[in-house]
Amino acid sequence: MKRNLFSLLLAALIVPHTMAALDMGVSYAVYATPDKPYVEINIEIAAGSLHFVNVDSSHVQAAVEVLMLIKKGDQVVNYEKYTLNSPALEYPRALLDVKRFAIPNGEYELEISCQDLNDASSTDHYSTHLTVRVELALHLSEPQLLRTFRADNSDGPFNKNGYYLEPLPFNFYDRFATLLAFYTEIYHSDITLAGQEAYTVRYLIEQEKGNGIKTLISAGSKRRKPAQMDAVLVQMDISKLESGNYSLTVEIRDAANQVLQTRSLTFQRSNPFLQIDENAITEEMLANQFVQSLQAEDLRFALRAIGPLLTNEESATLQNVLVSDDLKQKRYFVFRYFVRQDPNNPEQAYLQHMEIARAADAKFKSGFRFGFETDRGRTYMRFGRPDDLIHVEDDPAAPPYEIWVYYNFPKTKQRNVKFLFYNPSLAGEDFILLHSNARGEINNPRWERVLYARNAGEEYDGDNYGDATRMKPNVARNARTYFEDF
Length: 486
Fold this sequence. Notes:
Largest sheet: 6 strands, antiparallel
Number of strands: 26
Strand content: 35-45%
CATH architecture of the domain at 1-134: Sandwich
Structural class: alpha+beta
C-alpha cells in the first residue's frame, strides 16, 4: 500500500476534484511462464485525485500519461510509456491498468511516474526494489489482493487461468467490502515435493497491534497436489473486521506440516459502523448517509416497515418517533436500525428491507394499515416467504383460512414450522394468526374449536366441553388434517 487511502477517500467525498496531486496505488507480483519469469504491475489512480473534463453535456473523461521503468543500476532493461484514458463516464471513476514485463532473474528497481494530462501540475511517483527469482524449485508468488473476481475464459488484460481478476492496488478495503480475495501461483511443487501425495496452502489474517504485536483473526487452508504450476484463488470473510491495519500471510507446508515458503502483505480495513457507539452518531455523520435524502413520507413508511421486527421496548420508542415531527429523530432511528443489521452497508440493508416491505404491503394490503402490519405481513417480514401454503375458502363450517409451512426454520432451528391464519370477520384480507407450532409464537391448543366456533355446535371431541381442544372428524372439516399432515 502506498499511503492512507481512507483519508483521501473521505476528502474526495466531501470536496470532489480538489486534490493537488495524483494519488496512485501500485501492486506487483513475479510470475512465470514455462520459459521465463515476468513481473505483473497493477496501478490504480484514485478518482478523487483526477482532473476530469467534459466531453459532452453528460459525460466526463480523464487522461494520464504513465511511464514505467525497470532498471538495473543506471541501465533501463524494460519500460513502457503510454496514455491511460478513461472511457466517457457519467460519474468520475478510478483508473485501473495492468502491465506485464518479461525479465530474467535478478535484482532491479521499479519506477512508475504518472502525470494528469488535464492538469500539468498533478503528478505522482512510485519506486521500489524488485527481486525476480523463479528457479526450478518450489516458488510461491506474491499474493495479489483482489477487489473482485469471476469465472471468465475470455481474453483480457485482467483475465488469467479462467478468471477475471480485478486487483486492489491500494490494499484498502472500505466499509462496503465483506470478502477479502487473493490470488497467488505456486511453481515446481512437483519437483521439491516429489513423492508426496499432497501439500497444504495455509493462509491467515492477523491484526497489527503495533510494536510487532499481532493478533490472529482468521485462518484457513487448502490441500493441493504437487504440480508444475498451481493457481490458488481464495476468499475470506472480513465483514466483522474492525477498522485497522492487518497482514495477510500465505504459507506452503509439506506433509509433515513444516513451513517451506511464506509470503506476507499488509492491508487496511475501514469498518466505521461495526462497533459504533450509538451516542456517537452525529448530525454530521447522518448528513453523509442515505437517510439524509429520505423525506417525511419515506421516513414514515420506513419506520412502520421496521415495526414488525422490533421488541416491545423498541416498539414503544418507535411509536414516540412516529408521532414526532422531528425528521432528524426519524432519520437517526432508521439509520441506527439498519447499521445494526449491516455495519458494512446499511444503505443496502435498507433497500433490501424496503423491497420486502413493499412486496408485503402489496400482497397483504388492509384498508386500515400497511400490508406488512397485518399478521400475515409481519410473518412474511420476519421469516420470509413460506415454502408451501394452502388457502381454504370452501370449508362450510369455518371462515377462510391459510396454513403456511416452513420446512426449515432457522429462527428456532425447527423443521416443518406452520402458521394458521384465519379471517373471522370475513372483511377484506385481514387474516389473524390463530395458531403456530413455532417456538415463541402464538400457540393455541383450542385453535380448532376457535376456527369452527360459529357452526360446530356440540361437535367437540371429548366428554368435557370446557377442556376439549379438538373437533370431531367431519367430511368437510379438514383443517386439522391439513395442519398435521400438510
